[in-house]
Amino acid sequence: MKSSYYKLPLRFGQILETPEMELSRCTLVQSIEQHLELLITTCPGEHKFDMDYGSKIWELDFDHTVTGKQWEESFVKYLKASVSVYEPRLEHIDVTVSAIDVSKVEMPFAVTAVKKKVDIHIRGLIRDTDEKFSFYYCIYLGPLSSE
């Protein structure tokens, strides 16, 4: 059975604009990548029909009470748990992260903002095809600022 995967974001106006009256499609790999990005950027409680959907990484956004290593271990644990539950097309999931603090001067008030840059690598196997899967995503957390 061949499945159809739709490109995000869904653009319902396309249905009326195209003669085929269809939404844009994507590959299985692109669909998994889109879903992982959505899963990473969604905080539990934001999804109306499943309040657990998302990743608990957002609980770590302002947590400065743990060491960098503990923070990264918690981040990996939360993300791996979310992917394991909400992305059933993947198996043998491995998550690695590396985080660094990045400062940037934001205009027009010349305020220095310090953010945590997190590089996320998710690897695994696509369950249906046994194809190796690798995904990279970079996210900035913690809008801390100082003068």
Number of discrete domains: 1
Q: Give the C-alpha Rg.
A: 18 Å
State the separation between the terminal residues, measured CA to CA: 59 Å
H/E element string?
EHEHHEEE
By helix and strand content, what is the structural category? alpha+beta
Gross geometry: globular
Widest sheet: strand ordering:
3-4-5
Treating each run of at least 4 consecutive H or I residues as one helix, how many helices?
3
Helix content: 25-40%
Q: How is the CATH topology named?
A: Nuclear Transport Factor 2, Chain: A
Query: Strand-residue fraction?
Result: 35-45%
Estimate the mean pLDDT confidence.
84
Brief rundown of the structure:
This is GPW/gp25 family protein. The protein is α+β, with helices and mostly antiparallel strands and 147 residues long.
Protein architecture, described:
The structure is a single chain. A hairpin with a 4-residue loop joins β4 (111-126) and β5 (131-146). The chain is built from three helices and five strands; from the N terminus they run βαβααβββ. It has helices at residues 13-17, 28-41, 68-86; strands spanning 5-6, 25-26, 90-106, 111-126, 131-146. The longest helix is centred in the middle third of the chain and has 19 residues, at 68-86. It has a single domain, classed as Nuclear Transport Factor 2, Chain: A. It has a three-stranded antiparallel sheet. The chain has a two-stranded antiparallel ribbon with strand order 1-2. It is 26% helix and 36% strand.
